[in-house]
Amino acid sequence: MPSTNSPSLQIRKWYLQVDDTFATESGESADGDPVRKIVVGVALRNAYAGRFVEDLESLVKASAELGSEVGRRLVEASGGAPICSMGKACLVGTAGDYEHGNALLTTVFADPIRLAIGGATAWIPSTGKRGAPGTVIDIPLAHKDNLYVRSHYDTISAMFPDAPNSDEIVIAFAVATRGRLHARLGGPTASQP
Domain for residue 133, yes or no? Predict the structure, then answer.
């Protein structure tokens, strides 16, 4: 995505959140590499704020370009570490419909991200809500290739201090470089098909 806005999406601001965890909540040091969680978010104008629109296909189509740039930014922020889990979310400003945000989170948006992070064949957990600037959203994470790998069920909380304005949507995509530290609840492992 060029540094200027595209005709289909008017971007106001990009966000990057990076969390590195080296020990569990009780202080047990990592069992291997620390877990890095990354959130890339973008605040963009909601062209449909304040009105009901039946056909949201223009948002769906425009999201492919957005997904490509989100994927690029996620890989850059990972610093070369493999990305193992993922999740997505939308925050819709109070003048918009929740469906406006969901239109930007479909497969059209996600497929370029899957390609950028190296595959990602599993279903992507998703959430969203309407809110004002500073609203906190918890983004669910699951293994990128096998949804049933319990060790990678996780969450990251994200907050965008000045977004969404009432006529904006924030789209966020989160990834992690490994599962939870000292995950020990059994079930399939990441190496099982």
Answer: yes
Mean pLDDT lowest for which of 7-11, 19-23, 93-97, 127-131? 7-11
pLDDT in tens, 128-146: 999 999 999 999 999 999 9
pTM comes to 0.93
Domain residues for the domain of 15 are 11-176
Asked if 176 contacts 35 with a C-beta cutoff of 8 angstroms, the reply is: yes
φ and ψ at residue 65, rounded to 5 degrees: -65, -40
Distances (CA, A) of 64 to 15, 109, 111, 147, 192: 19, 5, 8, 23, 31
CATH number for 101: 3.30.1330.110
188 lies in a domain?
no
Give the DSSP per-residue string, 138-174: EEEEEESS-TT-GGG-EEEEEE-TT---TTEEEEEEE
**All residues at 6 or more sequence positions from 32 whose CB lies less than 8 Å from its CB, including other chains:** 178
pLDDT score of 4: 46
Q: Is 41 helix (H, G, I), strand (E, B) or coil?
A: strand
- Residue 33, in any domain of the structure: yes
